[in-house]
Amino acid sequence: MTILKVLQPVTFGHRVAEEETDILAKYFVETDQWQQLFSDKVDIIYGPKGSGKSALYSLLIGRKTELFDRGILAAVAENPRGTTAFQSLVINPPASETEFIALWKLYIACLVSATLDEYGISGAQAKELRDRLQESGLRPKEKNLQRVLLSAFDYVKRLLRPESVEGGLTLDPAGQIPSITAKITFSEPSATQIKEGAVSVDHLLELGDSALASVKYKLWVLLDRLDVAFLESPELEQNALRALFHVYLDFLSLSNFRLKIFLRTDIWQRITSVGFREASHITRQLTIEWNRSTILNLIVRRAVQNESILDYYHEKKEAVLATTESQEKFFYRLFPDQVEVGSRKSNTLDWMLSRTWDGSRQAAPREIIHLLNALRDAQVRQLEIGDSEPEGGRLFSRQVFKEALSEVSKTRLGQTLYAEYPDFRNQIEKLRGKKTEYSAQSLAKIWKSAPEATMELARNLCTIGFFEQRGEQDDPKFWVPILYRDSLDLVQGASE
After folding, report:
1. Distance (Å) of CA 189 to CA 196, 200, 412, 437
2. Taking Cα atoms as reference points, which of 313, 412, 400, 307 lies closest to residue 357?
3. Domains of the chain (ranges plus CATH)?
4. Which helix H or strand E contains 260, and what residues bound it?
């Protein structure tokens, strides 16, 4: 079989987990991090972009039946793909962190009730929760998440914004908190409100907790894609996520349901950068990290899902994956020993790692998978026009690596960095065609900015992974990772 015939049907999967939900289980390894999540030892999962948070989220959703058999119900609080449930909040968002706390609690109470209905859980508490939400107009006919969220938000606005009070809501004599009849408050209701049938949203959540306890089930509310949900407004993102973590801590007093939150590490750093006293109380957490061995395993595991590769090398999947040593041996049957030949040059695996990490120096599966698919495409193109096959029976020649890396670089800059941080685009573009290392002084000249503003911008670019800070703290150097160099046509060396 020719190398072209081997490679034509090959795929290394999608670099975005949401696009490979149906086949993700084939690639997945039940790591200790997965076991901690699946066994309910952690609630908060942090990780850099592309590190696999959404893969864990998708796998949890895919194992709802297995969770159910273990006495756990799973409720999705955000759409796994497509338009986010929170997109509609961007135009007319909650006005404060306080409004967001109320919204999170009410929205989750609605999800709890809907999940109890979905699984046929009845009883006095479940019925009271359902009836309270029903009489408050919080059980929309459309069951999609966006409709549920909007119904909850409309209620929050009517209650917490006096200028929005209408219909069945009236102000108390002091003109402060609206009083309601048989509806829901966001603090403990007054004696008058209680007589009129009011309950707090916390009481609704306690009803849901008791309903679950009565049937000996627990409920996990799953939240992912928070980076996409509030992408367009940093202030909105901060209010929403700080409120979410306040709510998470409030929920620790409830025994039978938990929030499972998947969040990027840079976003967590951003929302805590201005101070977040409660952060020290968040202990059920883990951070997804990848190292050389786990990236090797990811590459080889995806390679052996291709029957044409196994047939070509006359190998069995189980034998290849048996040990780290067998995985590395197989890796170098596919790839050359080095991309850049020389006694002081790195081997191919380390070359791939160092060229796909950003300023955090953390390898991410997303860029590795993109590089693998770009290598496959580049090699197929070369073979189709008549180039000779790679030496030694390998699938890839050294010549295709830089072409593939250039594609990864352009995608990462244009579709990730600029898409998520458009405010930094002008300053980054001013570095195009220039050097790879800068001092604060050289950046100030290029950006035509004052020293203090220059340092703030440079450190912000470190936070988002465009720069890696090196050198002394009082005389830092800002280094552009190799990942971004091709896309910006940078030249190796220090800017004077």
Report:
1. 10, 6, 51, 60
2. 412
3. 43-283 (no CATH), 290-419 (no CATH), 423-494 (1.10.10.10)
4. strand 257-264
At 203, list the tokens: 């009481």
Q: Could you please report the per-residue DSSP string of 80-140?
A: SSSS-TTGGGTTS--SSHHHHHHHHHHHHHHHHHHHHHHTT--SHHHHHHHHHHHHTT-S-
Placement of tokens 């570095």 in the chain: 431
Is 476 within 8 Å of 469 (Cβ atoms)? yes
pLDDT at 58: 85
Q: What DSSP character marks residue 148?
A: H
Q: Are strands 475-479 and 435-439 parallel, antiparallel or unpaired?
A: antiparallel
Q: Which residue has the tokens 């929309």?
A: 140
Task: Report the predicted TM-score, pTM, of the whole model to 2 decimal places.
Answer: 0.83
pLDDT in tens, 98-113: 899 999 999 999 999 9
Mean pLDDT along residues 415-423: 89
Residue 165 has a pLDDT of 42
Strand ranges of the sheet holding 468-472, from the earlier edge strand across to the other edge: 468-472, 475-479, 435-439, 491-494
- State pLDDT tens for residues 332-353: 999 999 999 999 999 999 999 9
- Rounded Cα–Cα distance for residues 44 and 29 (Å): 20
What is the signed CA dihedral for 83, 84, 86, 92, rounded to 10 degrees? -20
Is the Cβ–Cβ distance between 305 and 27 less than 8 Å?
Answer: yes
Among 46, 99, 79, smallest CA distance to 260 is for 46
Q: What does the mean pLDDT of the chain come to?
A: 88
DSSP of 110-125, one letter per residue? HHHHHHHHHTT--SHH
Residue 211 and residue 126 in contact, taking contact as beta carbons nearer than 8 Å: yes
Structural contact between residues 52 and 24, judged by C-beta atoms closer than 8 angstroms: no
Rounded Cα distance, 108 and 90, in Å: 19
The pLDDT assigned to 27 comes to 66
Give the β-pairing of 170-171 and 178-179. Answer: antiparallel
β-strand partners of 260: 222
Q: Would you state the pLDDT for residue 8?
A: 97
Q: What are phi and psi of 422, to 5 degrees?
A: -60, -25
pLDDT band at 179 (very low <50, low <70, confident <90, very high): very low
Hey, is 218 helix, strand or coil? strand
Which of 374, 343, 338, 378 lies closest to 354 in space, CA to CA? Answer: 338
Give per-residue pLDDT as tens, 290-348. Answer: 899 999 999 999 999 999 999 999 999 999 999 999 999 999 999 999 999 999 999 99
Is 186 buried (19+), middle (13-18) or exposed (0-12) by CB count in 10 A?
A: buried
